[in-house]
Design brief:
Length: 270
Amino acid sequence: MEKVIGIRFRKGGKIYHFDPGEYSPKKDEYVIVNTEQGIGLGQVIETPCSKDPRIHPREIKKIERMASEDEIRQLFTNSEIEADAKSFCLDKIAAHGLPMSLVDVEYFFDGSKIIFYFTADGRVDFRELLKDLVRRLRTRVELRQIGIRNQAKMVGGLGGCGRPLCCATFLKNFHAVSIRMAKEQNLSLNPAKISGACGRLMCCLQFEHETYKELKKDMPKMGKKVELPEGKGKVVRQNVMSRSYTVQLEDGREIDVDLGGCCCKGECGE
């Protein structure tokens, strides 16, 4: 059976999948691969596992080999170059008075190109800045404007749950998140409580969306009028996880209705 490994080229970056071939790299080890941008050095994030056609593309490149100690040292040297380039760029942004915020710098492993990632409210005329950077770095320079979600992914931090941001740790791609997802999970619609560090709706709202949709499929909506053996009333509360809802009767009494099929597999004591 075909195997694949997950490789990340920089901290918080996207995970790319490669065929390990004859090698069996362990987690956190470094490998050399051939990318569209040329030779790259990546760190193993996901150890070899079976290829899944539902997730992995049909054609997957093989890794070239395990990285040597000299190549790993070159990676850390490149990190120093990135730090120096970032400091220089920040000085020039201030000198030119440009309305942009530098987020990160990426220097290609083979030194063929360096990318400066930044955020801005609109378009920025950075032609003079680009000239300064080319004169200083003597390589191809690209200034790339990114969105605020990508900024959070690159910078990292802690979410409201107290754990590292999903986008900066395991999340491979951004998915569409809507306010409807928060409503279906009966969450407070207070923006401060359902927004992430980036100021957008939290990515984790999407994780359980399909589960909530399935559990609520045959559950009456809030405010709906229903008729029970005890009398007529309306739905005033829902407990999606325990598959139950509460009906307030016309005489003021409240009746709990259990639909069965709790999703907690007995862990909640139901």
